[in-house]
Design a protein that fits this description.
Structural class: alpha/beta
Number of helices: 12
Shape: globular
Strand content: 25-35%
Largest sheet: 10 strands, mixed
Radius of gyration: 22 Å
Number of strands: 19
Length: 415
């Protein structure tokens, strides 16, 4: 134990000198579990930090999800610790055999995998599995899925306590990374289902939760109110987690409305429409439920975005990462319409984009050009005669403009 503590102290002292990410391992219920930690450039053991827990989709490793979530940028921008817990591969032998059979039949639903599976209370009715495989396989399935047939459903990784795992990770963050009580949880797809399961658990430590094209699994107990702010993103065109309900999820709008009512919202909400500025046939609405400021609900709905479009800044009208940042790290009231306008009009007047050599900014303020792992490449005052990017390698970057405590961000492409 003394050797472990000494190693952790050494690691933390190294973190204080430069921003970094670390893959760490703990043992929970005899299973070795991994998670990735990101710390800000300014990290010091003398300070306290908020914590953002990000839960990956089914089939994605923690690193896969980190690679598309800009964790170092989020960490630096909000002076926060960001952690990516990693789910185990499927441990329910019946589920593995059932998926193998469906794969042989060519009837496996889109997005299904036995890798990196959360114990998120996801349940698929036994009769639905038989229908997917074909009635001619009903006898074989009855032999392969004995327990599932008796229960009436199959539940991936039902023997894994991932709520306990997440709490163990949070505890370690508090002990060794000086995390304070400002703990936020977000998840995508099955990671969203896990975020719901964690938020509804009696021993959760979260203050807010965000769910990106996720769902509430039937194995999650939702009898009690969520009693915390909730931000949900979903699309009516999602075929993996269907908007109006599918083989393992209920209606998404009904779920959100039910949570809002249990959070003692009065049932009314204001709607903001985001125009299709990118002209790609995708528009978004935001429903803000009138609730107490400690448990308000935001519901973003896209019309024509696919399950995977929801994570694409190129196709989304809104930047979900930016909104999740604001939702977690800034204080909001649901009646503050100015905040809604800020989200809609947060783009910076930059041109040309894509850019070859010189980038022009029409707005005043201090700027930073940041790469996708959070490193600041250049910074200075916005000037009308342009910003020289000739020495910047080709690729995608984030341009940050700060003026009078207002921070705007825009993705640019260097040709």
């Amino acid at each position: 134990m003394k050797r472990l503590y000494t190693s952790l102290v050494l690691a933390i002292s190294l973190i204080s000198s430069f921003a970094a990410s670390f893959t760490e391992t703990i043992t929970v219920d005899e299973y070795e579990r991994n998670y990735i930690v990101y710390t800000p450039d300014s990290y010091t053991p003398e300070a306290d930090y908020p914590l953002l827990v990000l839960l990956h989709p089914l089939g994605y490793s923690a690193k896969d999800f980190a690679d598309i979530s800009y964790p170092q940028y989020i960490s630096n921008n909000n002076n926060a610790i960001v952690v990516f817990p990693e789910a185990l591969n499927e441990h329910n032998e019946e589920v593995k055999k059932g998926i193998e059979l469906l794969q042989q039949r060519g009837s496996i639903p889109e997005g299904f995998s036995i890798e990196y599976v959360w114990g998120a209370g996801t349940r698929i009715k036994y009769d639905t599995i038989v229908a997917m495989a074909g009635k001619e396989y009903s006898f074989l399935l009855s032999l392969v899925l004995r327990k599932s047939k008796a229960a009436g459903y199959a539940e991936p990784n039902d023997i894994i306590d991932d709520v306990k795992f997440i709490n163990e990770v949070i505890t370690r963050m508090q002990l060794f990374y000086h995390v304070n009580s400002d703990i936020y949880v977000a998840g995508a797809s099955m990671g969203g289902a896990m975020a719901y399961r964690y938020a509804f658990s009696k021993n959760n430590k979260a203050k807010k939760v965000a769910v990106i094209h996720g769902y509430v699994g039937e194995g999650t107990d939702t009898t009690q109110a969520l009693n915390m702010p909730l931000c949900v993103f979903h699309s009516m065109a999602d075929k993996v987690v269907p908007y109006n309900g599918g083989i393992f999820n209920g209606s998404i709008p009904n779920t959100v409305h039910s949570i809002a009512l249990k959070n003692e919202c009065d049932g009314s909400y204001t709607t903001t429409h985001y125009i299709d500025e990118k002209e790609n046939g995708i528009s978004v609405t935001l429903d803000q439920f009138e609730c107490d400021s400690s448990k308000f609900v935001w519901f973003y709905t896209a019309d024509n975005a696919t399950h995977y479009d929801m994570l694409s800044s190129d196709k989304n009208v809104i930047d979900y990462i930016e909104i999740v940042e604001k939702f977690f790290f800034q204080t909001y009231t649901v009646k503050d319409k100015d905040d809604v306008k800020d989200i809609k009009n947060s783009e910076i007047s930059l041109y040309p984009n894509p850019v070859e050599d010189v980038l022009y900014c029409k707005e005043e303020g201090t700027y930073q050009l940041i790469n996708l792992i959070g490193q600041i490449l250049i910074e200075g005052e916005s000037i009308q005669n342009g910003i020289d990017l000739s020495n910047i390698p080709t690729g995608e970057y984030i341009f940050v403009l700060k003026n009078n405590n207002v921070i705007k961000r825009e993705r640019i492409v260097k040709k």
